[in-house]
Design brief:
With about 400 residues, this protein is of the alpha+beta class. A hairpin with a 2-residue loop joins strand 4 (about 280-285) and strand 5. The strands form 3 sheets. Strands 1-3-2 form a 3-stranded mixed beta sheet. It folds into 2 domains: about 5-270, no CATH class; about 280-390, no CATH class. The protein has 15 helices and 9 strands.
Length: about 400
């Protein structure tokens, strides 16, 4: 697996860092805490969490998370922190870090549950898991829990453990309304605005950490895209002062900008599971043929054998192989072109020949050029539908 820390990306990283808020580039300036203070705060919060939710014993999943956390920790602003992963036995999809270095990950984030809605948000690869964990480690590296608790204590004299829990990804163990014991909207508005600030900073930092490891930052993007799709599938309302996280759609846009600033290509299919194109034998208009299917759409129908002897089925299989290779590299609508190959129109993907329209493929009433343009149009439509699906549909 290639690393994402090339010299060009590091140069981009420096430019990105120069433009970010001081609280993110130099989080330790917020306040200096001793390791003992952090450990005490984290221990208090851990006790409260484990009193509400039991631990989940799964050595394989815990080792999976620990390996990722260990790789990421080296690239944070505080690489001296030694993180310990603990798993929680709940269907909730969540992960969060506490001062002192404890990282909690829920079963619901790692494997499907009986709750179909939550199961759509299970991480689809180690890249996605690394994205989520990197975001949570950023909170700890930036002292976000302690900063939030400090601000909360100034306003409400609440317990530090309760204030820490406002930083849970997407809600989690307790909501903001339960944490803010006094419940005054004005006070909540101040704290929750800080929470939005911290979440935005953590996303940016997470991309920076990931870009220095073998884990693709697109993993964080695709996970947040599914959160955005879930948000859109529900009844939306303006939360105002009660909002504790940036809207997922806003996070998606910001993450794309951060990833691109590192010189890394936006390619969701590199980090998620996705359906491949396939070649099928068929009878079309009473004739034997081979069709190429992509995401339940017929892209092209091969009727003729090639001059070099390849059968329609072999031609279709070659097209499927080329198409899937291009899809894995991030094929987009703009990468589909129609050109002229050896006298016959051809469709290309990312500059590589995908299929050539032979006279025997052309149906009555059409031309070879029109047939090629139609195939290209159907390919673009399938890709457009895939992009819209990631934005508006939770499923993969």
């Amino acid at each position: 697996m290639r690393r994402f820390s090339t010299l060009r990306r590091r140069a981009c990283s420096l430019l990105l860092l120069a433009s970010l808020p001081l609280a993110w580039t130099q989080p330790a300036l917020a306040k200096t805490y001793t390791p003992q203070q952090e450990a005490k705060a984290g221990a208090e919060a851990s006790q409260e969490i484990l009193a509400k939710t039991p631990e989940w014993t799964n050595d394989e999943q815990r080792a999976r998370c620990q390996t990722i956390v260990d790789a990421l920790a080296l690239h944070t602003e505080r690489p001296e922190i030694k993180y310990t992963v603990r798993l929680l036995d709940t269907d909730d999809v969540n992960a969060f870090s506490l001062p002192g270095g404890t990282v909690f990950v829920t079963r619901g984030l790692l494997q499907p549950s009986a709750n179909a809605d939550l199961s759509q948000l299970v991480v689809q690869s180690d890249h996605e898991l690394a994205g989520v964990l990197s975001h949570e480690i950023a909170h700890n590296a930036h002292y976000d829990g302690l900063r939030q608790a400090e601000r909360g204590a100034d306003l409400m004299k609440g317990g530090i453990a309760a204030a820490l829990l406002t930083l849970l990804l997407g809600g989690g163990v307790v909501g903001a309304a339960e944490v803010m014991k006094v419940g005054m909207v004005f006070e909540q508005g101040i704290l929750n605005q800080y929470s939005i600030e911290y979440e935005t900073e953590a996303d940016r930092a997470a991309v920076d950490y990931l870009a220095q490891t073998d884990y693709n930052p697109n993993g964080l993007l695709t996970f947040i895209e599914r959160l955005a799709a879930r948000d859109r599938s529900r009844l939306q309302q303006e939360l105002g002062a009660l909002q504790t996280h940036p809207y997922s759609a806003e996070r998606v846009t910001a993450l794309k900008q951060a990833i691109s600033a590192h010189g890394i290509e936006i390619n969701p299919r590199a980090v998620t599971t996705w359906s491949r194109a396939e070649a099928l034998d068929a009878i079309v208009h009473g004739k034997s043929a081979a069709v190429v299917m992509l995401w339940e759409q017929t892209v092209y129908t091969f009727y003729a054998a090639a001059p070099t002897g390849e059968t329609p089925a072999q031609r279709a299989q070659a097209t499927v192989q080329g198409l899937n290779d291009a899809l894995s590299k991030g094929l987009s609508q703009a990468d589909i072109r129609v050109g002229q190959g050896e006298g016959d129109p051809c469709v290309t993907a990312m500059g590589e020949p995908l299929l050539t329209v032979l006279p025997g493929d052309v149906e009555e009433g059409s031309t070879a050029r029109q047939t090629a343009e139609g195939a290209a149009s159907r390919l673009r439509a399938a890709l457009r539908g895939d992009e819209l699906g990631r934005t508006f549909r939770i499923g993969g």
